[in-house]
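> call design_seq(struct)
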C-alpha cells in the first residue's frame, strides 16, 4: 500500500465527499469502510445550497441530483392546530444561485460511492475493514490499525481523516476523556410513504410544538401516472425516559403501532398524518443524540470530519451538508498548504469553533426554536401569529440561523468557489 495516500476512515457521505475532493485535486487516497457491501440505507436528508454548490463543483448536475432527490421550494413551520407560523421559499426559489435538495440518503450515498469508484477504481476503496486506532510514525506519517474479517491489519498514509461517524474510534483516541453521547430526551421515528405532496408540492414542513412534532417533505418527484411522491416523515416526542439513554444506535426497526398513538388525532383538511405514517413499509426508531463539542479536530497528521467531528441534532437539516463543506475546506487547505499537518491545522482553525456553535444551537432546537418561542409566549395556541411573534422577529430568527450554519443567501452567492476550477495540489 502506498505511503503517499491519505487514509479516510469511513465510507459515508463525508468520507466519499472527501475522497472525491482529493481525487479532483490530484491527491491519492484510500477509503476504509467497515461494512462488507455498501447498500442504499436511510431515509431523507436535506442538502442546503452551500452543499449543492460544492456537489456541482465536483461534477454533479441537476439531472444527477434529480435521480436521488427533488429541489425544495419551501420551508414552513405549522402549529399544532394547523396554523402557519412561518414560511419562506428555499434554494433558487429564494434567490440562491443553487437549489436546496431533499434527497434519499441511501441513494445519494450510493451516487457518491459509485462516482468515486468509477474515477479512482476499486483499489482506492477497502470494504469490510474498520479503523480502530492510529499512531504517528517518526517520519510524520500515520499508521492506522484495522479490524477485518481476516483479523488485525495495518495501513500507513501521509495523513488520516477520521470520517467514521458519531461512534468514531479516531475521535475516541484523540479525545479519550470526551463525555458520553448526549441525549436530550427526544425519540424519533422515521419512515417513507407514497402519498401526495402538500403545500407547494416540494415543501419542508415542521408541524407541531417544541416537544411533540413531525417533519414532512418529499424526496422524489410525483409519479406522472399516480401523482404520488415518496414522502419522508419524522415523528418526534420529547420525554424523560432514563432507559432511552442507552439506545444510542441508529435505525432500530419498530412497529408503527408502537408509536402511532402519539399522532392519531393529527388530521387536518390538508394532511392526514396518521394515514401518512401507516403508509410506510417500515418505521425506524432512534434517539436524537449528539456529542459535546471538542476543542480541536486535529492531532498532528490526523483530522476529524463529518459526524466524527461535529455530531449534531438533525434539527437544522445541515449535518450532511456540513460534512460536504468539511471535505471541500480540507481540499482547499491542501491546495494552499500541501498534503501536510499544516493544512489540517488551517482547516481546524476555520471550522472547529464556528461549527461547534452550530452543534450547540441545534441542541437548542435550531430553526425549530421558533416553536419554543411561540410556546413560551402563548402555549402554542394562537389566532394571529403576528400578535405573538412579529414577522420581522421571525425573519430575524431565521436569518441568524442561516448565517451561523453557513448558507446566508447573499454571502453565499457572492463567495468565490471553495476550490477554483482546475486547482491541483502541487507538492
Amino acid at each position: 500500500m502506498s505511503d503517499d495516500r491519505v487514509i479516510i476512515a469511513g465510507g459515508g457521505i463525508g468520507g466519499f465527499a472527501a475522497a472525491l475532493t482529493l481525487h479532483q485535486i490530484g491527491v491519492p487516497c484510500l477509503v476504509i469502510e467497515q461494512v462488507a457491501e455498501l447498500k442504499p440505507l436511510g431515509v431523507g436528508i436535506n442538502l442546503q445550497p452551500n452543499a449543492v454548490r460544492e456537489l456541482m463543483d465536483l461534477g454533479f448536475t441537476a439531472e444527477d441530483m434529480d435521480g436521488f432527490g427533488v429541489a425544495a421550494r419551501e420551508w414552513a413551520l405549522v402549529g399544532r392546530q394547523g396554523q402557519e407560523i412561518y414560511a419562506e421559499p428555499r434554494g433558487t426559489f429564494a434567490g440562491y444561485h443553487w437549489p436546496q435538495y431533499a434527497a434519499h440518503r441511501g441513494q445519494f450515498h450510493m451516487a457518491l460511492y459509485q462516482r468515486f469508484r468509477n474515477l479512482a477504481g476499486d483499489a482506492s476503496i477497502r470494504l469490510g475493514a474498520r479503523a480502530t486506532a492510529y499512531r504517528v510514525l517518526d517520519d510524520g506519517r500515520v499508521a492506522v490499525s484495522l479490524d477485518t474479517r481476516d483479523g488485525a491489519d495495518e495501513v500507513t498514509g501521509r495523513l488520516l481523516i477520521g470520517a467514521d461517524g458519531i461512534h468514531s474510534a479516531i475521535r475516541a483516541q484523540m479525545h479519550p476523556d470526551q463525555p458520553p453521547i448526549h441525549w436530550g430526551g427526544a425519540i424519533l421515528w422515521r419512515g417513507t410513504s407514497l402519498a401526495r405532496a402538500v403545500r407547494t408540492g416540494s415543501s419542508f414542513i415542521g408541524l407541531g410544538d417544541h416537544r411533540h412534532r413531525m417533519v414532512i417533505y418529499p424526496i422524489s418527484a410525483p409519479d406522472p401516472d399516480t401523482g404520488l411522491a415518496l414522502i419522508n416523515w419524522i415523528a418526534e416526542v420529547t420525554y424523560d425516559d432514563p432507559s432511552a439513554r442507552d439506545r444510542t444506535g441508529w435505525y432500530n426497526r419498530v412497529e408503527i403501532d408502537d408509536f402511532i398513538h402519539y399522532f392519531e388525532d393529527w388530521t387536518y383538511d390538508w394532511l392526514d398524518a396518521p394515514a401518512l405514517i401507516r403508509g410506510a413499509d417500515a418505521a425506524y426508531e432512534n434517539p436524537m443524540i449528539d456529542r459535546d463539542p471538542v476543542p480541536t479536530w486535529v492531532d498532528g497528521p490526523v483530522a476529524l470530519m463529518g459526524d466524527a467531528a461535529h455530531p449534531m441534532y438533525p434539527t437544522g437539516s445541515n449535518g450532511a451538508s456540513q460534512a460536504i463543506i468539511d471535505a471541500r475546506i480540507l481540499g482547499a487547505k491542501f491546495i494552499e498548504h500541501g498534503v501536510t499537518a499544516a493544512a489540517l491545522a488551517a482547516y481546524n482553525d476555520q471550522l472547529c469553533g464556528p461549527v461547534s456553535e452550530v452543534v450547540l444551537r441545534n441542541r437548542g432546537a435550531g430553526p425549530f426554536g421558533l416553536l419554543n418561542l411561540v410556546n413560551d409566549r402563548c402555549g402554542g395556541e394562537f389566532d394571529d401569529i403576528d400578535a405573538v411573534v412579529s414577522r420581522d422577529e421571525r425573519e430575524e430568527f431565521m436569518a441568524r440561523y442561516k448565517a451561523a450554519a453557513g448558507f446566508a443567501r447573499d454571502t453565499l452567492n457572492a463567495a468565490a468557489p471553495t476550490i477554483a476550477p482546475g486547482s491541483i495540489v502541487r507538492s
